[in-house]
Design a protein that fits this description.
It is globular and about 70 Å long. It has helices at residues 38-42, 44-53, 71-80, 111-119, 149-156, 164-177, 194-209, 211-220, 237-247, 288-311, 317-321, 324-338, 350-361, 370-374, 377-384, 386-394, 400-413, 430-440, 445-448, 451-454, 461-477, 479-488, and strands at 3-4, 17-18, 29-34, 61-65, 85-89, 96-100, 103-106, 125-128, 184-187, 226-229, 249-250, 255-257, 262-266, 282-284. 47% of the residues lie in helices and 11% in strands. The protein folds into 2 domains: 3-285, Rossmann fold (3-Layer(aba) Sandwich), CATH 3.40.50; 288-488, Orthogonal Bundle (N-(1-d-carboxylethyl)-l-norvaline Dehydrogenase, domain 2).
Length: 489
């Protein structure tokens, strides 16, 4: 029979399930983390669990927090199991499970209680995983979206905040007024320069209500950049059943994830930090080169395999990676055109990183899907592919493969695969993209003239000509032949 997960069960975990190898009663909170979802519990909480197992830094445990009504459901589930989580690593060589105990509490979903918790001088870091959309970035300007009603509310009523950032500011104000040092604000979201985005949001909100206080925050609060990475699928009844049937634990909110995880942090923590370097995190002076490596090799790699895989009829990412045409195309593009745009990073082997990415994409246990990778090309291409093209053109490099990636996206947007089967719309702008993609069959500029996506890139002859050639090949010769031609060089 499966056992219910709670503190009392730690001394009788099923065989093969590891648990905390430290005394949780001796932990005290040093971090408030807002946004206790799957990624946080697969990533940051696992690093801290491992660190506590070395006997170090037991004053850096996690105090969970949330600001949305939906967070109450997670809090309720975790409270019933004493804030323990079963983490299953989806290793193709064999699944493994560990119960992690780095979180010791979870503040009630109440703004004033969370402000009070963050005001405690024992809390030296406030970290957040709120997703990219949770940072109130204005898509037009890249700055703070001051028109958002919750931002307006927090600016007008700073003592009754609704957003995490309003609550952070209320706690910082209390600490300043009490003569206490401010905590560090650390984003754990997967977006470029996340520390800069965090500062923009927090300081920008403060400016709307109290410019002098905003200046104090800007001068005294640290916002380190971080790079985070670990593929973490959503939890459903399937994952709960896996934990129960395979590992003998009834866990209301287990986490499954790949065995790979990476965390690179700017070493900017004025009030101290846990020694996470002891368990594999990397502290560096500048995170930007690591972010660029990930954005181009991993995220760019996802974009590269997404559209040809869909056009060739693949559904799962691991099945696509088992197709030698997809695998050879990815390796050739990464090696010839993507990696050469990166500046060297001391101690980092880009080829080894590329091979690891290829291995991760090939993991059948993850169950990642091609439709997920294809989703929202309108926004993803400008983030992950088009900057690579710009850098390659500026350096006078060949862009035939990068142009082929864009042509594959265009061919996908036309709405049918190579077998003539319909492709379901997979973008908020699918109608416009389809119209442009079909017109591009005869006039390639119809696709590239979308300046919202391409800016002036479509008017650069070296790219536009390469795109036209590759798109013609896709329509005339088919996806497989075009990929194979590029891979052969």
């Amino acid at each position: 029979m499966a056992i219910d997960l709670n503190a009392a069960a730690l001394d009788r975990l099923p065989e093969g399930v590891a648990g905390p190898d430290y005394d949780r009663a001796k932990l005290s909170a040093g971090i408030v983390h807002i946004g206790v979802g799957n990624f946080h519990r697969a990533h940051m909480a696992v690093y801290l669990d491992r660190l506590f197992g070395t006997g170090a830094d037991h004053d850096w445990a996690i105090s969970g927090a949330g600001v949305r009504p939906g967070d109450a459901k997670m809090r309720e589930a975790l409270e019933k199991q004493d804030f323990l989580t079963t983490v299953v690593e989806l290793d193709p060589a064999g699944l493994s499970a560990r119960v992690t105990g780095a979180m010791i509490e979870f503040t009630e979903i109440d703004a004033q209680k969370l402000v009070a918790r963050m005001s405690d001088p024992a809390i030296r870091i406030v970290s957040l995983t709120v997703t990219e959309g949770g940072w109130f970035v204005d898509a037009r300007t890249g700055g703070l979206d001051t028109s958002n009603p919750d931002i307006r509310h927090d600016a007008e009523q700073p003592d009754q905040p609704r957003t995490a950032f309003g609550m952070i500011l209320a706690a910082l104000r209390r600490r300043r007024d009490a003569g206490e040092a401010p905590f560090t604000v650390m984003s754990c979201d997967n977006l470029p320069e996340n520390g800069h985005v965090a500062k923009q949001t927090v300081v920008g909100l403060a400016k709307l209500a109290d410019p002098a206080f905003a200046d104090w925050v800007a001068e005294n609060v640290a916002f380190p950049n971080t790079m985070v990475d670990c593929i973490t699928p959503a939890t459903s009844d399937r994952e709960r059943a896996l934990v129960k049937d395979r590992f003998g634990i009834t866990d209301a909110a287990p986490v499954v994830c790949e065995p790979f995880r990476q965390w690179v942090l700017e070493d900017n923590f004025p009030q101290g930090r846990p020694a996470l370097e002891k368990v594999g995190a990397e502290f560096v002076a500048d995170v930007a080169p690591y972010e660029l490596m990930k954005l181009r090799i991993l995220n760019g790699g996802h974009a590269a395999i997404a559209y040809p895989s869909a056009l060739l009829g693949h559904h799962f990412v691991h099945d696509a990676m088992a197709d030698p045409r997809i695998r050879a195309w990815l390796e050739a593009l990464e090696t010839r055109e993507i990696i050469p745009t990166l500046e060297p990073i001391e101690g980092v082997d880009f080829e080894a990183y590329r091979r690891k990415v290829e291995e991760r994409f090939s993991n059948p246990e993850i169950g990642d899907t091609i439709p997920r990778l294809c989703f929202d090309g309108w926004n993803r291409q400008p983030k992950f592919v088009l900057p690579v093209i710009r850098d390659a053109l500026a350096a006078g490099r060949n862009v035939d493969g990068l142009a082929l990636e864009v042509a594959l996206w265009c061919r996908y947007c036309a709405g049918t695969n190579d077998a003539g089967e319909a492709i379901a719309p997979n973008d908020d702008n699918a109608e416009e993209l389809k119209t442009r993609a079909l017109a591009a069959k005869d006039d390639p500029s119809a696709f590239l003239s979308n300046e919202t996506v391409f800016g002036d890139l479509g008017r650069q002859p070296a790219f536009a000509d390469a795109f036209a050639r590759q798109l013609a090949s896709l329509w005339n010769d088919g996806v497989a032949a075009t990929l194979e031609r590029y891979a052969r060089g």
